[in-house]
Amino acid sequence: MLKAVRAKLHGIRVTGADLDYHGSITLDPEHCEKAGIYPLEFVEIWNKNSGTRITTYVIFGEPGSGCCILNGAAARSCQRGDQVIIAASDYIEPKGLYDLKPVVLTFTEDNQIDRVLRYDVYSSDKREFDFRILEDGS
Fold first, then answer.
1. Distances from the Cα of 117 to the Cαs of 42, 101, 134, in angstroms?
2. Cα–Cα dist 24/27, whole Å
3. How far apart are the first and last CA of the chain?
4. Active-site residue 77, yes or no?
5. Which of these is catalytic: 24, 38, 89, 91?
6. pTM, to two decimals
7. pLDDT tens, 9-59?
8. Which of 57, 77, 89, 138 is catalytic?
């Protein structure tokens, strides 16, 4: 078994931090649905500004708000305006990589979806497990 990326929000900006909340990251459910991220699912968060990496669970905020709010202890890891990468993962057998096709959303400065990409692992003439990034629908 290996741990593989299943869904990713790339370059979304932090819209708030609430140290006094009981913990988690609050995300726009419309973004989560499009990427395939579930409420209460644990995700990894990588701050592109500071390099900080944390793990916490997802709760849903206001649909259409573009929110990305770090709560509780996670609020110490980011500041409003920081760009973060949020990744959900799963444990699979290596051959399962061929069927995985994770959705990767990229974002504009105001947290609107910019591009919808898919990671694709395939077998090529060069190697058994090759990799490419596809625009959704390709």
1. 22, 9, 6
2. 10
3. 28
4. no
5. 24
6. 0.94
7. 999 999 999 999 887 999 999 999 999 999 999 999 999 999 999 999 999
8. 57
